[in-house]
Specification:
9-stranded parallel sheet, Jelly Rolls, globular, 28 strands, TIM Barrel, 7-stranded antiparallel sheet, Immunoglobulin-like, alpha/beta
Length: 653
């Protein structure tokens, strides 16, 4: 009977709501909770520490809501494969439903807990489609969840998916996001589908680096229906000073559209683009974005960054480095100290003999490589690797999450390493230094909220102290080697969040370290530069050139505010982790079960390389042991060099 009622509500005429330009159709009012069940069909249907039940205590509308109760319990149980599980509640839709005429789903959410909520992931919702396979699942992370109040949640129905056969609605949390023993209850009420009464821009992005360095790529996604007879997209370019640089217009045929335009004279440097959705001559919606264009014909600088280099740097005989003298690489990162190093930092005089050997042996640029992990703690409940990798785990265990005030001396040790490495880069005449901001010891320490709660400090105070770390890194550059390029593997400035009581956006901790560095460099007019390496986006792996181009365009949009704010100091770099034989890959480089990959051999990567080298003046290859790349093996070097060199040449033409 409930299924019949569910089908009926979708057949009813939509309820117009002119106040917010949507029309609505009821989907589930949760007055009957019986269709909703707990359990993850892929891992654990029992889920003894979660429950799904009706609630008459906390209700937004009607007589009851649906309560999703989660008790985080990391204690292993007999026969349990994943102690840190994925509590889930779901509803199967039988028969499948056609949502193709709708743009998004709305529902009300009330979160009840006495425990701190995670900063970035609290609850996810997914709408599943019959026959569809989505890598990682079709999950939407609900942003901005706050406890103790009703919040109206809006979930876009992504363009490009086949919404004609929706067969399941699911909510889930991962216990690994929380702390052991946490308890949280989510109350859900009044689930509706909604569609726009007129189209708006859901997103718009522009980049001049994905096709060639003279052609703009514009990606637009609408919410609502476009009428090709009426609706169009226009773009207008201006210089940072406001001078007109051209405009163009296209007719809209679909909700997701890609356009290309080659302005007459796109000069290298910064530009402002205004993208407009028009109905005739009436502007319905618009977006503005800063972007940077690059000098055509410039050959990308390619560096090797790989943990294989640790074995070369720590060898008694450094001559293995010379393999790279006959390679496509212009530089290589050399890790002076491992990411889990705990021994006292040696002196400059101790380093000097090895520095002299490297300079005599290498014909390409050696870049010193430093890890911020040195000042990151490893508490008892850490989610990281220090306990099995650090020579002296106690060194990290005594750090209070981050050694922001140098409570244990770890911050001072890291700064000593940094100073020595910067000095070495200058001694070598190298362009700069590499810093890896990955929190290998404890990944939750990326989050300002977690750091503040564990250190007993306010969010604002933690942000101030983290940015002071970046300022100190820049001050050392100023003192030792002002022209030094700082190549970060990632900055996370593309990730923006909010926290109660904090004005403006909040980034992960590496983002605020980067901001501290950039602000100091700008205020002191230093000639140094920071390269955001791209490990997190576009990332090591994309399945094809088109997917890579989309990531590049999206990254330009996400990073635009900081590229505009720091035009002399912040630049984007790219990365990729290639392999020469998919069949021998292991770990994160292996194909998932049932996954069909078009990239199977090194030659398959050629268009990926060319796309990346067109997009960025600075690129790095992550040579992974999971793909057995072995870049210091002469035979492997001979395999990779011609493919990389050809792509570098083609991208510069």
């Amino acid at each position: 009977m409930r299924v019949a009622a569910f089908v009926l509500v979708l057949m009813l005429a939509a309820i117009a709501c002119a106040a917010d330009d949507y029309e609505y159709a009821p989907l589930d009012d949760f007055e009957d909770a019986t269709p909703w069940v707990k359990g993850d069909p892929n891992t654990d249907l029992e889920q003894r520490d979660s429950a799904v039940m009706p609630s008459t205590e906390i209700v937004h509308e009607g007589a009851q809501s649906l309560a999703f109760v989660v008790h985080v319990n990391w204690t292993p149980r007999e026969g349990e494969q994943y102690p840190k599980g994925w509590p889930m509640m779901a509803r199967e839709l039988d028969p499948v439903q056609d949502w193709s005429d709708w743009d998004r789903a709305f529902f009300w959410l009330y979160t009840e807990t006495d425990d701190p909520l995670p900063q970035d992931r609290v609850l996810r919702v997914g709408f599943f489609i019959e026959g569809e396979e989505v890598r990682g699942g079709p999950w939407y992370t609900i942003p901005g969840i706050e406890p103790g109040k009703w919040q109206r949640i809006s979930v876009p129905l992504e363009p490009g998916r086949d919404w004609t056969r929706v067969n399941r609605i699911s909510f889930y949390v991962a216990e690994g996001w929380y702390q052991d023993g946490d308890r949280v209850t989510f109350y859900v009420d009044d689930l509706q589908l909604a569609r726009r009464t007129s189209p708006v821009l859901l997103s718009a992005a522009v980049a001049s680096r994905t096709i060639d360095r003279r052609t703009l790529a514009i990606d637009v996604q609408l919410e609502g229906r476009a009428d090709p007879a009426r609706h169009s997209v226009g773009i207008t370019l201006t210089s940072p000073g406001g001078a007109a640089e051209g405009s163009f217009r296209w007719r809209l045929e679909d909700a997701a559209a890609h356009f290309e335009w080659r302005p007459e004279d796109l000069a290298p440097g910064g530009h402002h683009a205004r993208i407009q959705l028009l109905d005739g001559e009436t502007v319905l919606d618009s977006r503005e974005q800063y972007f940077r264009s690059l000098q055509p014909g410039r050959r990308s600088y390619l560096s090797l960054i790989s943990f294989y280099s640790s074995g070369q740097w720590n060898a008694d005989d450094l001559s293995g480095l010379t393999v790279l003298n006959d390679s496509a690489y212009a530089g290589v990162a050399l890790p002076f100290w491992g990411g889990y190093e705990t021994a006292p930092v040696e002196s400059w005089d101790d380093l000097l003999p090895k520095l002299e050997q490297v300079r005599d042996l290498l014909e390409i640029d050696p870049w010193p490589w430093v890890f911020s992990n040195r000042f990151i703690g490893s508490p008892e409940d850490a989610s990281g690797h220090a306990s099995r990798n650090a020579p002296d785990p106690a060194y990290f265990e005594r750090i209070p999450i981050l050694d922001l005030d140098n409570e244990t001396g770890a911050r001072a040790d890291m700064m000593t390493m940094w100073r020595l490495a910067v000095r070495a880069a200058k001694y070598w005449g190298a362009p700069g230094i590499v810093i890896d901001l990955e929190a290998y010891n404890n990944y939750p320490s990326y989050h300002v909220k977690y750091v503040a709660e564990r250190r007993g400090e306010s969010y604002a105070e933690v942000i101030r102290k983290v940015e002071a770390v970046g300022e100190e890194l820049a001050r050392i550059i100023e003192e030792e080697y002002p022209q030094c390029i700082v190549w970060t593997l990632f900055t996370r400035l593309e990730v923006a969040d909010t926290l109660p009581g904090v004005e403006g956006v909040v980034h992960p901790v590496p983002g605020h370290i980067s901001l501290g560095f950039l602000r100091y460099a700008q205020e002191h007019r230093l000639p140094c530069r920071m390269l955001c390496g791209g490990e997190t986006t576009p990332g090591y792996y994309n399945p094809n050139p088109e997917a890579l181009r989309r990531k590049i365009i999206d990254r330009d949009r996400a990073m635009a505010p900081y590229l505009e704010r720091f035009p002399e100091h912040l630049f984007l770099a790219g990365t990729i982790s290639p392999y020469h034989d998919l069949s021998i890959n292991t770990g994160f480089m292996a194909a998932a079960e049932g996954e069909e990959r078009s990239l199977r051999t090194l030659e398959d990567f050629a268009p990926m390389f060319e796309t990346l080298f067109t997009a960025y003046d600075w690129n790095w290859i992550y040579a992974s042991s999971a793909a057995r790349t072995m870049p210091y093996d002469p035979a492997h070097n001979a395999l990779y060099t011609p493919v990389l060199d050809a792509a570098l040449t083609a991208a510069a033409e």
